[in-house]
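User: Design a sequence. Structure:
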C-alpha cells in the first residue's frame, strides 16, 4: 500500500500541527482538487449558475402563484408559492455553504451561526419534499376520491403548510447539536459524533431521517403518481355515450355548496368543471393541464432526489485508505483512488440533484397556460411587444365571458 509510508506517518504523529491539518476543510478540498479536478470544477462552478437561474425562476413562480387570481381559483397555488419560496431560500443557503466548502471562505465559522445554519439548511430541504408530498396527496384524492378531496379547502391548506413547516423544523433541531466550531476554528461535526461514526447518534439519526424524507417519501410520491396516471388513462377509455349525460349535467344549475367548494386545479377551477370531475370519476379534460403540471413537478423531484439519496446511503460502505497519508501518495493508492472515483461521481450527481430547486418555473410555463399568460402580463410591461404573447381568440373570449357571468374568476 502506497500510504503505508512509516517515515511520513511517524513525522505526522509527532506533530500536533500536522495532525490538525488533516481535519481541516482545506486538506479535504485540496485533496479533491488534486485527485478529482473535473468533479471539483463542476462542484464549484455549476452551483452559481443554478443560483442565478433559480433566483429569477423562483421569484417569478412565487409572484405568479401568490397573485390573487391564482389563489382564489385553487388550493395548489398555496403549495407552489411555498415551494418557490423554500427553493429560493435553499439556493441562498446552499451558496453560503459552498463558500465554506469548497471555496474555503469561512462563511460558517461563527459560533451560533454554525448551529443555526445547519438546522435551517436541512429543514428547508425537508420542507420542499413535504410540500411535494402534500399536493401529490391532494391530487391523488382529487382524481381518485373526488368527494374526499373537498375537505381540502383554501382555509385548511395554509394550516397544512404551516404544520409541515413545523415538522421540518422539528426534525432539524438535532443538527444544532451535531455541529460546532471545532479546535481549528471551523464549523464541523462534533468530535464525539465523528468518532465511531457508524454507531453514533449523528449517523443513526441522520441516516434514518434522510432515508425517510429523501427516499421513502419520494417513493410514496411515485406510487401515488402511478395510481393517478392509471386513473387518468382508465377514465380516458370511458364510452363516448357517457359524454352527452356529462354535458347535460354540466348545464344544470349550480348549488351554493358547489360554488364554494375547492378543487386542486391550476387552469380551470370552475364549479361546472368540478361537478364534471366528480361525475367522471374525479378527472376530466379540463383537469388535464393542472394534473400534468403537478405530475411533472413530482416526477422531477423523484428523478433528481432519489439518485443522490442512494449515493448518500452507499457512502458509509465505501472504504477509504489508511491515514495519515499525503495527497500525492493518495493518488497512487488503489483504495483511495476507488474512493475518489465514488466521491467524484457523488459530487456530479449532487449538482444535478440541485436542479429541482431551480427548474420548476420551466415546468409551470410549459404545462400551465394561465401561469404563462400571467408571467407575460406581469413581467413584460408592454405585452403587445413581447415575443410569445398569448393573444385572446374569439373562443377564449367567449369562455372568459361565460365564466365571469357565472361568478368564476379565470
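Assistant: Done.
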Amino acid at each position: 500500500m502506497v500510504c503505508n509510508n512509516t517515515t511520513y506517518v511517524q513525522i505526522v504523529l509527532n506533530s500536533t500541527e500536522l495532525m490538525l491539518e488533516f481535519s481541516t476543510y482545506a486538506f479535504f478540498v485540496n485533496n479533491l482538487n488534486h485527485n478529482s479536478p473535473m468533479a471539483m470544477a463542476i462542484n464549484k462552478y455549476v452551483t452559481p449558475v443554478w443560483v442565478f437561474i433559480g433566483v429569477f425562476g423562483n421569484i417569478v413562480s412565487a409572484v405568479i402563484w401568490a397573485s390573487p387570481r391564482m389563489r382564489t381559483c385553487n388550493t395548489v397555488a398555496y403549495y407552489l408559492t411555498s415551494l418557490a419560496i423554500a427553493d429560493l431560500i435553499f439556493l441562498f443557503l446552499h451558496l453560503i455553504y459552498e463558500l465554506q466548502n469548497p471555496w474555503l471562505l469561512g462563511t460558517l465559522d461563527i459560533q451560533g451561526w454554525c448551529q443555526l445554519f445547519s438546522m435551517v439548511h436541512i429543514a428547508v430541504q425537508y420542507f420542499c419534499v413535504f410540500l411535494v408530498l402534500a399536493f401529490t396527496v391532494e391530487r391523488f384524492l382529487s382524481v381518485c376520491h373526488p368527494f374526499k378531496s373537498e375537505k381540502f379547502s383554501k382555509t385548511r391548506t395554509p394550516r397544512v403548510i404551516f404544520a409541515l413547516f413545523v415538522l421540518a423544523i422539528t426534525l432539524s433541531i438535532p443538527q444544532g447539536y451535531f455541529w460546532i466550531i471545532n479546535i481549528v476554528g471551523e464549523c464541523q461535526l462534533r468530535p464525539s459524533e465523528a468518532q465511531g461514526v457508524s454507531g453514533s447518534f449523528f449517523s443513526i439519526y441522520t441516516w434514518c431521517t434522510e432515508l425517510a424524507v429523501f427516499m421513502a417519501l419520494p417513493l410514496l410520491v411515485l406510487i401515488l403518481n402511478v395510481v393517478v396516471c392509471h386513473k387518468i388513462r382508465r377514465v380516458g377509455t370511458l364510452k363516448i355515450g357517457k359524454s352527452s349525460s356529462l354535458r347535460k349535467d354540466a348545464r344544470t344549475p349550480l348549488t351554493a355548496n358547489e360554488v364554494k367548494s375547492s378543487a386542486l386545479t391550476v387552469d380551470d377551477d370552475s364549479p361546472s368543471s368540478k361537478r364534471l370531475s366528480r361525475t367522471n370519476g374525479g378527472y376530466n379534460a379540463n383537469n388535464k393541464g393542472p394534473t400534468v403540471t403537478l405530475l411533472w413537478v413530482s416526477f422531477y423531484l423523484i428523478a433528481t432526489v432519489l439518485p443522490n439519496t442512494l449515493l448518500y446511503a452507499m457512502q458509509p460502505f465505501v472504504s477509504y485508505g489508511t491515514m495519515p497519508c499525503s495527497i500525492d501518495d493518495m493518488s497512487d493508492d488503489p483504495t483511495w483512488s476507488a474512493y475518489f472515483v465514488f466521491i467524484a461521481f457523488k459530487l456530479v450527481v449532487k449538482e444535478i440533484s440541485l436542479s429541482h430547486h431551480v427548474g420548476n418555473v420551466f415546468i409551470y410555463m410549459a404545462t400551465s397556460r394561465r401561469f404563462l399568460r400571467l408571467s407575460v402580463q406581469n413581467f413584460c410591461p408592454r405585452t403587445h411587444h413581447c415575443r410569445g404573447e398569448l393573444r385572446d381568440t374569439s373562443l377564449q373570449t367567449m369562455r372568459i365571458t361565460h365564466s365571469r357571468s357565472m361568478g368564476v374568476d379565470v
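The chain has 21 helices and two strands. The chain has one domain: 6-380+388-405.
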